[in-house]
Amino acid sequence: MICVSVCMGTGGISAGGDKVFHNFEAELLKHDIEATVNKGCSVHQVGCRGLCAKDVLVDVIANGVKSTYEHIKPDMVMKIVEEHLIKGAPIKEWLVKEDYHNFNAKQMKVVLEDCGVVDPEDIESYIERGGYQAVKKVLTTMTPLDTVETIKRSGLRGRGGGGFPTGLKWEFAVKNHADQKYIICNADEGDPGAFMDRSVIEGNPHSVLEGMIIGAYAIGATKGYVYIRAEYPLAVERLRIAIKAAKEKGFLGKNILGRGVDLEIKVKLGAGAFVCGEETALIASIEGKRGTPKSRPPFPAQKGLFGKPTVINNVETLANVPQIIKRGADWFASIGTEKSKGTKVFAITGKIKNSGLIEVPMGISLKEIIYDIGGGMEDELAFKAVQTGGPSGGCIPASMIDLKVDYESLAAAGSIMGSGGLVVMNEGDCMVNIAKFFLEFTQLESCGKCTPCRIGTKRLFEILTRITEGKGRKGDIEFLIDVCNDVKATSLCGLGMTAPNPILSTIKYFRREYEAHINEKRCPAKVCNALLTFTIDKEACTGCTMCAKTCPASAIEGDKKKPHTIISDKCIKCGSCFDVCKFKAVNKE
Amino acid sequence: MESDLNKMLEHYYEMDGNIISILQDMEETFGFIPEDAVNWFSHRLSIPAARFFGTATFYGQFHLTKQGKHIIKVCRGTACHVKGSQKISDDIQREFSIGVGQTTKDELFTLEHVACVGACSVAPVTLVGKEVNGKVKSSAILKKIKQLREV
Fold first, then answer.
1. Best CATH choice for the domain A533-588 from the list 3.40.1160.10, 1.10.630.10, 3.30.70.20, 3.90.1150.10
2. Could you count the other beta carbons within 10 Å of the beta carbon of residue B30?
3. Helix (H, G, I), strand (E, B) or coil at A340
């Protein structure tokens, strides 16, 4: 039996996974007809397996031995089929190297266990791996209260950012009696720099549905929604296929497994508003209204969707549920730290060698994530900071690299766990610019309902813009801190309460960078163009005219094959000349 | 147009009276939210047009003006930002004399920013239509866009 699996997550597809897959199909078909050697050979598409930096990844299982190939291009497929599958000799130089194994060594896969193994568009392949066993177990041997108790005992906490205990949330909904209850899966993953939920749904959509069925049974909900971003077309499609298949198999719909339990799940597409990740805003959006948050209480577990008790869980949280049911609460509680149990999925990106999707036990250190799993810094530049939690989180400096990753430690460091984006930055990244970047995002996404967030984030963004343009004033830092604290204390929802975190954490750890911008009108990382002066090194310039041709302001003069000069009055500081010069003759100071 | 709108109306009832579904259908069919269509629904359903516009302007997905033939989306996620996506956007804006969310006069190109397309491992990312371009450079993406003009 020969089996070929091609990585077909969004990362894999953008690297050409689609063509690789079709070439395998075509090649296998071709050889099957000619020589009939490959009977029983099958090609599968699988979801994300994490190491997107090495896409397209292809697994070939022949004679019970699995070989993994990296960086596979469509035109390499023919050779793999001929050498490996027909002649039986794997192509050594294309196989994954040592760093692929290191990438996996320190990880612990619970949620991602079957991502990259099961075919996300085939329910049978999920069932073969023990899928829907947890639903069977719950429906036949456990009462709803047992189920809630098990989740409570496991110590599972919400993976969307806040970290509220899941079992407790369910318990509240159980206690509120009503003729109709709802369960909602929050797949509105809006954090820039995060793609965990997308990968889970693309890689193993049934695990999320299974978690929803168990949750619905526990709280007594008969209707469910998956609220998912419209920007994730592949995930939406796979989710729809999964719902249909689960219905046909009797895991969804009326009278599930003949146990008298009903659950109908609908997919709702988000319409592009970050604030809709917030529970009450998400509910408003499903109801067809502007997605503005409400003050709580009443909590959704009391009065949620259409005024009925509603539980909202994040994708990753729900994907943990079947595993907990199958393997037991004690098993889950044995992983992680005292207060943060289980594993966490992170999307690790930025200036790092192995960017991709990882799952690690809670309590692992940042150092292990960045150097052992991530393979260290790209281009061997010095590590400066890692940004966690997206626009609601903060920057953790190099000096704190031994920090343990769990809810409490990250909060104590001025950041948050968030949904799991980790963006690694090096010496070439300006922290004031990063803070400005996040505030640009939050002030744009602020829904405008409450004044502190609507006006506060805008003012913060304006001050940061001024500082990066060299118009910073004395006292700006203190003023920023002051406004940040006000916005934090008085905003209505999580968006405003956490929006100042990127500023406060960068001021706390990188105050000198702010001072350099304000007092010396200098950007130490050479990022803020307005504070830089571009000049051409006469020695290094070969007079290739590339910069003069590219300059949009016609600010560069010089004859062919003679050194060029930049006319500083005309220069708009766009940095184009710096980027195009092949001789490193353009300096910025 | 009338038959399109009737179809949307049916879908609206299927979706338990959700006006976001109408807006999403309009966006999909027309590429933007036409005022006439909103008024049509407003009369039919006795819902003030302001509610449609209020909802449409809240969400990033909806546009009140006609979009260009080609939509260029520059990803402004964090990973793309640290890898220089601002400059890519700046260069496109300068080259085509448009701002973010605007369309060129010949109605060929619309420039948009997206928060994150989740392809961070190949940052910086720019979408031209539905095609995902990873690890892009300004010069290459400008060339690609200009080629579309000639087609």
1. 3.30.70.20
2. 15
3. coil
CB pairs under 8 A between A and B: 129
The nearest alpha carbon in chain A to B132 belongs to A14
Rounded alpha-carbon distances, angstroms, from residue B1 to A358, B11, B14, B37, B43: 49, 16, 20, 9, 16
- The stretch A561-568 carries a mean pLDDT of 92
Nearest CA in chain B to A275: B59
Asked if the Cβ–Cβ distance from B116 to A349 is below 8 Å, we say no
- Select from A290, A373, A440, A526 the residue whose CB has the most chain B CBs within 10 Å, as the one to mutate to test that interface: A290
Residue A568, beta-bridge partner list: none
CA angle A333, A335, A340 (to 5 degrees): 75
- What does the pLDDT look like over A135-169, one tens digit per residue? 999 999 999 999 999 999 999 999 987 889 999 99
Greater pLDDT, A336 or A41: A336
Distance from CA of B29 to the nearest CA of A (A): 16
Query: Taking the model in full, what pTM does it have?
Result: 0.89
Q: Which residues of B touch A350 (CB under 8 A)?
A: 78-79, 82-83
Q: Where are the domains of chain A?
A: 2-105, 130-333, 343-426, 431-519, 533-588
User: Cis (ω within 30 of 0) for the bond into A56?
Assistant: yes
